[in-house]
Batch of 3 targets.
Target 1
Amino acid sequence: MKRRRHTHWPHELASIGAMRFARRSSNFEETVRFYRELVGLPLFETFGDSFGSNGAIFGLPSWNLTLEIVESVDTVAVDHHEQLCLYFPDQPAQQAAIARLREAAIEPVQQHPYWEAVGAVTFRDPDGREVVFAPFVY
């Protein structure tokens, strides 16, 4: 049985109220659709021409943690280590989460040997970033 990790948040950062992760997207509309309709992330807000940018803000498991996708006019280079890893408590929960992707005929991609060994399933978003569905909580 794997023990849960306990980390202590640094005192200097204790007053942080929220955290956001942002990525640029060369395929903005398709990427927003992918995360909203196929992955199932709740879309909190969209914005247009906000200081020159268009974007979408998705909710993650905690209300104060969000993922922002910002439209890019240029092609965005994607590194193969740019992953969004979603950890589920078990395989049935993992399989339920990927059902929409399978129903949409989205095929899993070849994945890192670690993910293969632990039973994860990996898909690519329209920009080529990997979304990993793991059947355990890290």
Note: Strands lie at 19-25, 43-50, 53-59, 65-71, 83-87, 121-124, 130-134.
Target 2
Amino acid sequence: MATQTAGVAKKLGKKIARERVARELTQERLAELLGVEQETISRFERGLTLPPLPRLIQLADVFELPLEVLLRGTTNRAADEAADIADMLAKLSDSDRDLIRRWVTEMCERLSRKR
């Protein structure tokens, strides 16, 4: 894979993984939805294989995203930050995620009352 293509594949792979995790899908479940093997999803996410156009369209549909957002990502900083936070939360236990959600909700309520 050429260097430029490899860079695109890596970036797209990270985006696919981020969207999958944000929707609480396993690689196996996403593979089922797309009608492919789990290893195919793994290869996409690791940037080893670029998904063909029909598969990209399927991915965008499953993630309920415009294809352009899947391919280009977002220029919305808040959305990027939310995706980064989702990645971090995915690594936590359910109870820790619940604790964080409650804390964030409380802080947002407090801060919105200050305005």
Note: The helical segments are 3-22, 27-34, 38-45, 53-63, 67-72, 77-90, 94-114.
Target 3
Amino acid sequence: MGTVSGLGEAAIIASINRAFAPNASSAGSVNSAVQGPDEARGRGAVLVGNGDDAAVLAANARLVLTMDTSVEGQDFMQAWPSGVETSPRLLGFKCAAQNLSDINAMGGRARFLLMSLSLSKNVAASWPSEFAAGMRDACEVLGAEGVELLGGDVSAAEAISITITAVGELDSKARPIVRNAARPGDQLYIAGRLPGTSGTALNRLLDSRTQQEPSLEHMPRQHAQPDEDELARALEAHFMPTPPLELGPALAAAGHRIAGIDVSDGLVRDATRIAEASGVDMVLDEAAIERMAAQLGQAWALQSAEARHNVLYGGEEFNLLFTVPAGTELPQLPGVSIVRIGEVTQLNQAGRQSGIYLEGQRLDENLGFDHYSTDKP
């Protein structure tokens, strides 16, 4: 099969471009032609695309910028303790999706991606193109088909490292979704798939009867050894998130005061980020949390304690967590689940750190994901 070291940098870049944009007019370039004045009048038009030292855009819009890095051993594994492997196509899907989710969480629509890819020299020659195809899959599946790959860089490294920058646009009359806009009396909602799904899937991928992973030591294993079908399901659940990309722009366009964040590090940890930025507390709805825990437990054969823990602290669903004033009419979008899970309240004590409460108890936000925690995949 060969490795990337046998391809060389130019061939790697060309394979990425072909995989992401198979219908591009010239091999190795997503958009290498310089557009004329009439073509450039559109919002965010590409004047010079992939193929030059840098891209040139006609930025006639409010731009939204974000960047995420995924590092082998820190954010993902190629080979998991459970015995399954992460395909580059699945990894590409997730890396693109988490950037699209950040743009959505601000109320914007993604338009462009840039990618920096560092690969070890023994990686298969097909790896870069399969990864890029996974990125394209994410854009198509999640409703962001128009997103273009503008360029990036490749390099060699001991372990795989991927950094993607996404550029989006915010409609001219839209109100950005920010973390510091929550006020007492606002209602707390979560939109997307069932919280805890990705965290549960990650636990299954880490499950090994010969070695207990540190990140799981606090949680007793109650379920049976995952079989091949269950592990395939876990890979898909963890690496193919479905952020509700139509919801962010719809909320922003409505013009309401909205606080929001995408849930990457766990419901409690990310809710705490909104609360701290806004100077408020939040009280979770016990019935809503229990319903979600029951659904998760049934779907993945979990005991109630583990299901509840995963709903509260599992991350990387890339759901949209947001607050709106009570009585706000929410957008009704096909296939998008929006669930009320709590309410914003005043700080219990002036000058005290914000917190998230359930059943009268403050929840520990430190149980969510942190890149510098000693407990990581």
Note: Residues 62-170 form a domain with the 60s Ribosomal Protein L30; Chain: A; fold (CATH 3.30.1330.10).
